[in-house]
Amino acid sequence: MARDGIRKKPFTRKKGGPSTFAARGRARPQTDVSVAILYGWHTVQAALANPKRRIRTLFATENAAKRLAEEGVPLKVTAQIVRPDEIARKLGPDAVHNGLLAEADPLDNPDIAEVPDDGVVLVLDQITDPHNVGAIMRSAAAFGVKALITTARHSPEATGVLAKSASGALDYVPLVLVQNLARALGALKDRGFLVVGLDSEGHADLAETALTAPLALVLGAEGKGLRQLTRETCDRTARLDLPGEIKSLNVSNAAALALYVATTRLKR
């Protein structure tokens, strides 16, 4: 069991001006002027519905534009009606775009001091696969997670594949970027968060671990798991005991299971 608690990207942008926890002040707006590429029905629909998201250009097929109108989705900009293959040429042949592609401004990254302290947050320790991070964000949105915290370096950009995998969650769950994860965890602890790292060698099964809110669940990369300093900074570590023959899960599946266990226990 790995130590992570279970133990073509055609468009990219540079990370700009990620806020750090140390300032404990207002969020710094991103300083780059690059574009976030959003495609797929749920991803684009959520971006269009988010008043904080500025859409620069919207490409839509006739069918997709008709569906947007039927569902009363605010367009913000006039859609450019194109053929499906024109969108496919922009994204690549494997991208499932559902007839929608938006070029948008990246969202501002809030400061860690702005994270609400009345629920659950997820912390990612150098999880770099955009499919996994996107799927984790989707689960985070489903379970009402207050924020997803990750490092400014060694993390995928909030665009393209990640945005598609998140299925709109980028516009629902605040993404907080920090420079030093261990110090960020310390800042959460100072604010009363219980910090629990998911690790195959954790002290107890998460389902049997005493949990209190606000709660920060920390997940490490597949294979590597939590880094030593990250693990040492956690208040405790917990594992996910599985009854079947396979004892490990993909990190995004582990995140969903951990969120179910944690939110269920916190309701008691």
TrEMBL record:
<dbReference type="InterPro" id="IPR013123">
    <property type="entry name" value="SpoU_subst-bd"/>
</dbReference>
<comment type="similarity">
    <text>Belongs to the class IV-like SAM-binding methyltransferase superfamily. RNA methyltransferase TrmH family.</text>
</comment>
<dbReference type="Pfam" id="PF08032">
    <property type="entry name" value="SpoU_sub_bind"/>
</dbReference>
<dbReference type="GO" id="GO:0006396">
    <property type="term" value="P:RNA processing"/>
</dbReference>
<dbReference type="GO" id="GO:0003723">
    <property type="term" value="F:RNA binding"/>
</dbReference>
<dbReference type="InterPro" id="IPR029026">
    <property type="entry name" value="tRNA_m1G_MTases_N"/>
</dbReference>
<dbReference type="GO" id="GO:0032259">
    <property type="term" value="P:methylation"/>
</dbReference>
<keyword id="KW-0489">Methyltransferase</keyword>
<keyword id="KW-0808">Transferase</keyword>
<protein>
    <submittedName>
        <fullName>23S rRNA (Guanosine(2251)-2'-O)-methyltransferase RlmB</fullName>
    </submittedName>
</protein>
<dbReference type="GO" id="GO:0008173">
    <property type="term" value="F:RNA methyltransferase activity"/>
</dbReference>
<dbReference type="InterPro" id="IPR029028">
    <property type="entry name" value="Alpha/beta_knot_MTases"/>
</dbReference>
<dbReference type="InterPro" id="IPR029064">
    <property type="entry name" value="Ribosomal_eL30-like_sf"/>
</dbReference>
<dbReference type="InterPro" id="IPR001537">
    <property type="entry name" value="SpoU_MeTrfase"/>
</dbReference>
<dbReference type="Pfam" id="PF00588">
    <property type="entry name" value="SpoU_methylase"/>
</dbReference>
<dbReference type="InterPro" id="IPR004441">
    <property type="entry name" value="rRNA_MeTrfase_TrmH"/>
</dbReference>
<dbReference type="GO" id="GO:0005829">
    <property type="term" value="C:cytosol"/>
</dbReference>
